[in-house]
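haha ok so turns out i had the wrong file open the whole time. this is the CORRECT one, sorry everyone. sequence first:
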Amino acid sequence: MELKILKDIGLTEGEIKVYVALLELGKSTVGKIIDQSGISQSKVYDVLKRLTGKGLVSYIVEGKIKHYKAAQPKQILDFIDKKEENLRQNKHEFRKILPDLESRQKTGDKKFSAEVFEGNRGLITVFDMSFDESRKGDTVYALGYPPYASKLFDEYWRGYYKKCDKKGIIRKVIYDYETWFLKKRTGRKLSFYKYMPKGVYTPPWIFIFNDKVAIMNVTPEQKVCFLIQNKEVAESYIQYFNLVWKNALS
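then structure:
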């Protein structure tokens, strides 16, 4: 007889052996159940207790001795119905906690993506991203700032820094020495600046925020940004930034 279906609906191998033994024996004591099913004495009581809880076995006490009896096989259909009802209820309850579980899921560690943005508008999209995705107390790092970029984005940065101050976003910037003229700027509460030593250049302009690294090349001929999203890459760039920061000019 194929009994795999009984395992599929949730009965253990031991429960199946004991239930079938009781079907064959009729009303029986534990000793006979052990002999018929092959289940050891140390386990049979626990199996009988579980089957009783599932409504598949009942017992009566005669002379202080329990006599067990298997429920009719049709009772298994009721057992299946109860499992289906429990599954429906569990599914309903699980839907309630699903958003919380998804919010706890760690997705950043291994996530990796790369995108390319071109032109003034493309670069501004990345700058806006650094603002939108940062929360109060977060830090946006910038390494290098070509003088030509200052001409292109000066007006944009005025608004950007005001928004960051209002939102509580910290900015740490290491400018190229050629942009020393920016030192006279004041009134940016959460901005901290340093400068590369004279003669030391950072050809790419690097922007780091959250789990993203933006590597930009801004010249009259080309305005392009390679945006990498990966937590480990971003953390390594922040370490590099902090190393440069220690040796930069105030």
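The CA atoms of residues 91 and 167 lie 40 Å apart.
again sry for the mixup
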